[in-house]
From TrEMBL:
Record domain PpiC: where: 172-270, 279-379
Extent of the signal sequence: 1-21
The protein's name in its UniProt record: Chaperone SurA
Major localisation: periplasm
Gene name of the record: surA
Catalytic activity reported: [protein]-peptidylproline (omega=180) = [protein]-peptidylproline (omega=0)
EC number: 5.2.1.8
Length: 431
């Protein structure tokens, strides 16, 4: 799944407002976030953009104080995450960026030229738009890399779930889920929080708009897009969601129910039918070179270019170079081969390469969070309802479940440990 894509389509205009805003007189720092800042113009521009988008879609918004608090929190969290991407040295090249923008345009049923015209009509510069897309992908890649390290999937878990999938006839039913989270901690008045949750459910059952209520009340990760998690199979949802969905129909309001971070309310806004289990597996091989104090990015790139030249000239075989020089020990012992895998199991930049490369062609050197690579796709195959496909599917399901859970926890931990200082009328209050 392109984690950044859903974020961009849903949030881009909000998140990009700060970098696209026109100059504001007497701009000032509103929040200090670690070594960075959120400017007052960032907040103002994001609110204006939200209001414009709400007007276009006839979406009502909460009171300004509530809206400002939600936007401010989102900008703080995004600043923290972007600082992590910079710390990791994540860089998004122009080719990757161009492809992302093409996908955004396609999502909006526009060509790239039409997208530029649409942005200009909204007062958004295309150069600023590109840089904001680059930033969002960098944030997503850093988040993916750091959260992956927290995920541990046991072979017994994969085996158990693959057995279950083999016997289920409705494993591919998808749900369009909306979510409201009321966060609690040790200092929260829990009876008051439960009363608030029950009042929200009562209003929803009386016909209040779920998206508006989510924007107003939710502290969950999708609050500013009306709590919309998009289309998910039960196996892809956070476990606390999946456990609550049984035989409910479209339109059902579920909750409130409790988890370790607070109370939750769900709505099944839509459902859609079964899909067959069919995956494309790729057998690829690669050579990994890691940078160090004595090997720069340019040096690693030149080294891999030389390896590719020697392979293509017939001077040496790919597997021999991988065995001698690749710094991925597991694959180096197999002449660089990674075996048949679904591309989703790889980090985004590597996934992109194995998806677009013709079979038998060596890629240009490219960088991921692990280092610099060249990769060659040896073969592709379609797998439909075989044991291997079910095992891979089970792994992906478990990974997606745990990723969503761990990503939310990671963001909360990052936010809690960050230095955040709100600057108000020349006085500062630290949190």
């Amino acid at each position: 799944m392109k984690m950044w894509k859903h974020t961009l389509v849903g949030f881009l205009s909000v998140l990009s407002a700060s970098s696209m805003a026109a100059p504001v007189e007497l701009d000032r720092v509103a929040v200090i976030v670690n070594s960075g800042v959120v400017l007052q113009s960032d907040i103002d521009a994001a609110i204006v953009t939200l209001e414009n988008n709400a007007s276009k879609s006839s979406q009502s918004l909460p009171d300004m104080d509530v809206l400002r608090e939600q936007v401010l929190e989102k900008l703080i969290v995004d600043t923290i995450q972007f600082q992590e991407s910079e710390r990791l040295g994540v860089k998004i090249d122009d080719n990757r960026l161009d492809q992302a923008i093409q996908e955004i345009a396609k999502e909006r049923e526009l060509s790239v030229d039409q997208l530029q015209i649409s942005l200009a009509e909204d007062g958004i510069g295309y150069a600023s738009f590109r840089e904001q897309v680059r930033k969002e992908i960098a944030i997503s890649e850093a988040r993916n890399a750091l959260v992956r390290r927290r995920i541990n999937i046991l072979p017994a878990e994969v085996e158990s779930l693959s057995t279950q999938l083999a016997t289920e006839t409705n494993a591919s039913v998808q749900y369009r889920i909306q979510h409201i989270q009321l966060r609690s901690d040790d200092n929260t008045d829990k009876p008051a929080l439960e009363k608030e949750a029950n009042e929200i459910v009562k209003k929803l059952n009386q016909g209040e708009d779920f998206a508006t209520m989510a924007i107003s009340y939710s502290k969950g990760p999708k609050a500013l897009v009306g709590g919309d998690w998009g289309w998910l199979r039960k196996e892809e949802m956070p476990t606390i969601f999946a456990d609550q969905i049984t035989t409910q129909a479209k339109g059902a309001i579920i909750g409130p129910f409790r988890s370790g971070v607070g109370l939750h309310i769900l709505k099944i806004s839509d459902t859609r039918g079964l899909e067959t289990v069919a995956v494309t597996e790729v057998n690829a091989r690669h050579i990994l070179i890691k940078t160090s104090v004595i090997l720069s990015d340019d040096g690693a790139k030149r080294q891999l270019q030389e390896y590719a030249r020697r392979i293509e000239s017939g001077e040496i075989k790919f597997g021999e170079l991988a065995e001698q020089f690749s710094q991925d020990p597991g694959s180096a012992a197999q002449n660089g081969e990674l075996g048949y895998q679904t591309p989703d199991l790889y980090v985004p930049e590597f996934k992109h390469q194995v998806e677009i490369l013709p079979t038998g062609q060596i890629s240009e050197p490219f960088k991921t969070v692990h280092g610099w690579h060249i990769v060659e796709v040896l073969d592709r195959r379609e797998v439909d309802k075989t044991d291997t496909a079910l095992t891979n599917k089970a792994y992906r399901i478990l990974f997606n479940r745990k990723f969503n859970e761990e990503a939310s926890a990671w963001i909360q931990e990052m936010r809690a440990s960050a230095f955040v200082e709100f600057v108000e009328n020349d006085e500062a209050e630290a949190q």
